[in-house]
Design goal:
Layout: H1 11-18, H2 29-44, H3 56-68, H4 76-96, H5 108-120, H6 127-138, E1 143-144, E2 147-148, H7 150-166, H8 173-189, H9 203-212, H10 216-234, H11 241-251, E3 286-294, E4 303-310, H12 315-325, E5 330-335, E6 338-344, E7 353-359, E8 363-364, E9 379-386
Parallel strand pairs: 3-9
Antiparallel strand pairs: 1-2, 3-4, 5-6, 7-8, 7-9
Helix pairs in contact: 1-3, 1-11, 2-3, 3-4, 3-5, 4-5, 5-7, 6-8, 7-8, 7-9, 9-10, 9-11
Length: 387
């Protein structure tokens, strides 16, 4: 197997692949070893280079990857990472505050992911840290722009299911059961006419959550979501590795909690990933895409221009073209999901703000700039928004 560059090292993909038995453990030991070198170096360099410090969620994903690869974290280095993750959680807990009025610096999604990762490794999280998530779950704090975040609810639900199964916080058991039921009802309420929970990309995690907290009411809804996801998969909607890595376990009737009972002696040899490519049967035509930038709906657009790009171009291609032609500038940051737009026309979002991608006038895109392919005549709006 080839050696991979750090930017290709994605713990979420490793976890997804391991939960679908592909590739086998020894076959892909090199990938896990590269991940370990990358993350351990990042932590050793932590003090020197805060800019590239892995986030709480990335560390949590890395610990899930270690578990998927049957790596022992009871070592000295492993213990340092566990302590670091617990420390991140404590910091976030303080940000949320006694009255639950604040917000985590990262998100409740990453807060849940961190609790889940520690729990899967059978590491106890202090009750007061869990309580913050229980409170947030019951008070429907999992919102992004006043829209309920099914992804966040699903991740919290998985964390609660793990805590319940592990018995790590027995004193919180009745509260955990209550919150689990509440979150399950909320996810079910978010079912769309197509059968998704929230949207297509939140449905894989939602299904994982519902599989671990089953109820008679959710059975049919899960079947509908499963069918809708299979359709989406066939139609090529899963271009981005993150949602795909969250879907892979589902396709094998597994969830992140399956890592709790992982059989580390099982070395099955495995299926090759089936990568389908779309053949180009004709010369691509050019299409016109309009790009608008706004920081406040009351003001005029900061930028408003049409661009000619080849049919099938991504939104990123449009932005590159716009930047080349002048007046328009943008910057991105590499994340596990791909390039995240972090600045437009030199403007960086403030705290809990982001550059939202919309199909004009007001339909948020369900994909990022590297995956979304605008249609001819479409107008894309980059809008500075709060979340
Ligand atoms: C929290 C969150 C956000 C927050 C992130 C800020 C923060 N401080 O956490 C905000 C509100 C800014 C956000 C924005 C967007 N998001 Co978002 N987000 C998430 C969520 C719930 C968790 C991400 C996370 O913490 N992952 C774990 C950590 C460890 O991984 P990470 O790589 O370090 O995390 C960073 C990136 O994920 C990045 N990020 C967040 N969303 C997106 C989306 C894209 C396309 C990219 C490239 C990066 C990115 O922010 C994280 C924190 O720094 C995921 C849900 C999921 N199922 O993954 C959706 C999710 C990744 N987002 C999604 C989308 C569509 C978007 C937007 C494109 C929406 C829009 N129309 O504008 C924008 C990004 C626009 C841009 N500027 O490029 C989709 C992506 C689907 C896909 N096909 O890939 C998801 C899966 C939600 C969904 N079900 O639709 N998001």
């Amino acid at each position: 197997m080839e050696r991979r560059s750090p930017s290709e090292l994605n713990p979420s993909i490793y976890v997804g692949l391991r939960l679908s038995n592909q590739p086998s453990r020894d076959q892909d030991d090199l990938y896990l070893n590269s991940l370990m070198v990358h993350y351990q170096l990042a932590f050793i360099n932590l003090a020197a280079d805060h800019q590239h410090e892995p986030s709480m969620g990335q560390l949590a994903l890395y610990l899930l990857a270690m578990r998927s690869g049957c790596k022992d974290i009871g070592t000295r280095k492993g213990n340092v990472l566990v302590t670091q993750l617990k420390h991140y959680l404590e910091e976030e807990k303080h940000r949320i505050g006694h009255e639950h009025k604040g917000h985590p610096l990262t998100s409740y999604y990453q807060y849940s992911l961190a609790i889940l990762a520690l729990c899967v490794h059978d590491k106890k999280v202090p009750g007061h840290v869990v309580e913050k998530l229980l409170h947030a779950a019951e008070h429907d704090v999992f919102l992004h722009r006043s829209q309920y975040s099914v992804d966040t609810a699903a991740m919290a639900s998985l964390a609660f299911s793990c805590l319940q199964a592990s018995g790590l916080n027995p004193g919180l058991e009745p509260w955990i059961s209550r919150a689990l039921k509440h979150v399950r009802d909320k996810i079910l309420q978010e079912e769309t006419p197509e059968g998704y929970f929230g949207n297509i990309y939140s449905s894989p995690l939602a299904l994982q959550a519902l599989m671990e907290a089953p109820s008679p009411e959710s059975e049919l809804a899960c079947l509908r979501a499963g069918n809708a996801l299979m359709k989406g998969l066939e139609e090529g909607a899963f271009q981005n590795p993150i949602p795909l890595s969250q879907l892979l376990p589902i396709l094998h009737q597994r969830t992140y909690l399956s890592l709790m009972q992982l059989d580390c002696n099982d070395e099955r040899g495995l299926l090759e990933a089936d990568i389908t490519t779309i053949p180009l049967t004709r010369k691509p035509q050019n299409i016109e895409v309009r790009l608008r930038v706004q920081i406040d709906p009351q003001f005029r657009f900061l930028h408003d221009q049409q661009y000619l790009v080849p049919e099938g171009a991504t939104l990123q291609d449009v932005l590159i073209k716009a930047q080349e032609e002048g007046w328009f500038t943008y910057e991105t940051e590499t994340t596990l999901s791909g390039p995240l737009v972090t600045s437009v026309m030199g403007i960086s979002p403030g705290e809990r703000q982001y550059w939202q991608l919309l199909q004009a006038p007001d339909t948020p895109l369900l994909q990022g700039i590297a995956d979304y392919r605008p249609q001819d005549g479409e107008t894309i709006l980059l809008s500075l928004a709060s979340w």
